[in-house]
């Protein structure tokens, strides 16, 4: 009876050892199935389902090119109304700043002179001397504003002459140019009259009279005596 119990105990211990080995093998096999030795995979950002495929691309950061300035409306080579009175010195010379002779211009209107002309150069001469008061008038001079240019005038004779000034008028709008044409260009040129110029005639060289020769007295020839 004791031998049978001892044999049963040995068999039970043997079965227990075999069962433990099977269990360990199962755990080891299961561990190999869950561990990967391959390199980790990097997720592609394009596969992100949260990204909006319709999102616009970023705008370029290059600076914008400046737009070409549009030319303003203008009145070209207009005959300008001229005002002012030249004052001559005792030598018959004047530094005259021709002024705008029309009514007040709309805001933003500018005038650039292109020509100054006298109709009669036998009464006045232009540019015969310099004017220290300011710049000489000529093509490109501002006209009708706060800045003045000066015409050098010199009397050369009596009579009348007409000063005509032409210029380019630039406006802020076409409506302003229409208003200038209708209301501000009605004045005319400036007539300058000279009536106190003393005309000195050229000096005449007096002719030297040669004295008339007195008739020569002929000495009487000695009369021959009759023998």
TrEMBL record:
Residues 31-44, 200-227 have a biased composition (Low complexity). Residues 45-54 have a biased composition (Acidic residues). Signal peptide: none annotated. Transmembrane segments: none annotated. It comes from the Bacteria. Residues 15-83, 198-227 are annotated as: Disordered. The lineage of its organism: Bacteria, Bacillati, Actinomycetota, Actinomycetes, Propionibacteriales. This is Lipoprotein. Residues 17-28 have a biased composition (Gly residues).
């Amino acid at each position: 009876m004791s031998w049978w119990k001892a044999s049963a105990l040995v068999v039970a211990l043997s079965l227990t050892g075999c069962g433990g080995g099977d269990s360990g093998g199962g755990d080891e096999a299961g561990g190999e199935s869950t561990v990967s030795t391959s390199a980790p995979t990097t997720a592609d950002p394009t596969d992100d389902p949260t990204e909006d495929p319709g999102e616009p691309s970023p705008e370029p950061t290059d600076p914008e090119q400046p737009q070409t300035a549009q030319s303003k409306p203008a009145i070209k080579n207009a005959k300008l109304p001229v005002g002012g009175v030249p004052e001559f010195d005792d030598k018959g010379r004047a530094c005259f700043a021709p002024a705008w002779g029309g009514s007040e211009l709309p805001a933003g209107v500018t005038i650039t002179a292109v020509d100054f002309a006298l109709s009669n150069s036998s009464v006045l001469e232009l540019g015969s001397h310099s004017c220290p008061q300011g710049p000489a008038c000529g093509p490109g001079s501002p006209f009708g504003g706060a800045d003045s240019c000066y015409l050098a005038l010199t009397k050369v004779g009596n009579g009348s002459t007409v000063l005509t000034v032409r210029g380019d008028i630039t406006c802020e709008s076409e409506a302003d140019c229409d208003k200038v044409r209708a209301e501000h260009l009605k004045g005319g040129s400036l007539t300058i009259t000279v009536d106190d110029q003393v005309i000195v005639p050229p000096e005449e060289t007096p002719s030297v009279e040669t004295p008339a020769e007195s008739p020569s007295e002929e000495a009487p020839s000695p009369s021959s005596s009759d023998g």
